[in-house]
Design goal:
Shape: globular
Number of helices: 7
Radius of gyration: 28 Å
CATH topology of one domain: Rossmann fold
Structural class: alpha/beta
Strand order of the largest sheet: 2-3-1-4-5
Order of helices and strands: EHEHHEHEHHEH
Strand content: 5-15%
Helix content: 25-40%
CATH architecture of one domain: 3-Layer(aba) Sandwich
CATH superfamily of one domain: P-loop containing nucleotide triphosphate hydrolases
């Protein structure tokens, strides 16, 4: 189930500007006796036995950050990927991309996303919505026990956290692939929310094997990741609404993880050449 996103995060604080304002100006140079306009009394040399007191140094700004972090610009920094020249085929393996992998529970989203991210030629991160939701240990609201205000709030918070993480990776030159069970009957909340969080260049791809495959894979799960057969069938039926939506759909019923990742590259190559309208 998809839900509306929260309010945007506050902009980062500008370097050198805190509650007290900009860095203080360095003190003006002292005048010396004999200089034009000197009005103060001449300074006597210190007594031979008097202790030498060093004048205080003016406050200097902190050292510049050299960790390679790139400050996030306002809004989503991910633009629509530029299509390659007509004579050169698209190469998604060497392009900085933001991919949203959609599918029901048991479709293999997490396994495919990890495999795809690990074998790319450019740095790539995998961000799983379920993993981020489960960062909450004490007080975790499990939707399987009933959807309520707490589970809805934790879902919205996890999505916003995933979106911010994706923007941070992308702003620093690292591709990312996110996975989530986005339902087609709520596209404004689902796809629209991810697009607002990550940027207009986000490329959605649907992973939708047959119901028998999904039920078989779900049976191999454990913990709160395993759903009842009735719930799996209900989710799979809603996901079928993606057919005819214009989004690329991969039926990986007869494909292993590596084969699905290869087809994903082919689908992304076409999406880069002709970005989907969504």
């Amino acid at each position: 189930m998809q839900h509306a996103v929260g309010s945007p995060l506050p902009p980062p604080q500008r370097p050198g500007h805190g509650p007290a304002g900009p860095w203080p100006m360095a003190p003006q140079a002292q005048q010396h006796p004999g200089a034009p306009g000197f009005t103060g009394a001449p300074q006597l040399p210190p007594h031979p036995q008097a202790p030498q007191v060093q004048p205080p140094h003016p406050q200097a700004p902190p050292p510049r950050d050299t960790t390679g972090h790139v400050q996030l610009p306002p809004g989503g920094p991910v633009a629509v990927p530029s299509p390659p020249p007509a004579q050169a085929p698209a190469d998604p393996g060497a392009t900085i991309l933001a991919v949203l992998l959609i599918g029901p529970a048991g479709a293999g989203k997490t396994s495919v996303a990890k495999h795809w991210a690990e074998r790319r030629r450019v740095p790539t991160a995998h961000i799983s919505l379920d993993d981020v939701r489960e960062w909450v240990r004490s007080g975790f609201a499990d939707p399987q026990t009933g959807w309520n205000d707490n589970s809805e709030a934790q879902y919205r918070l996890a999505r916003r956290t995933c979106g911010f993480a994706a923007r941070n990776f992308l702003a620093n030159g690292i591709s990312c692939i996110l996975d989530d069970a986005v339902f087609p009957d709520r596209p404004v909340v689902g796809l629209g929310g991810w697009k607002r969080h990550v940027g207009p260049g986000l490329l959605p791809v649907v992973l939708l094997p047959g119901l028998e495959i999904v039920l078989e894979r779900n049976a191999q799960r454990s913990g709160n990741r395993r759903l009842s057969d009735e719930e799996v069938a209900r989710i799979h039926g809603r996901m079928a609404g993606w057919y005819g939506s214009g989004l690329p759909i991969i039926d990986n019923s007869q494909l292993d993880v590596a084969g699905t990742a290869q087809v994903l590259d082919e689908v992304l190559a076409r999406a880069i050449a002709s970005p989907p309208q969504w």
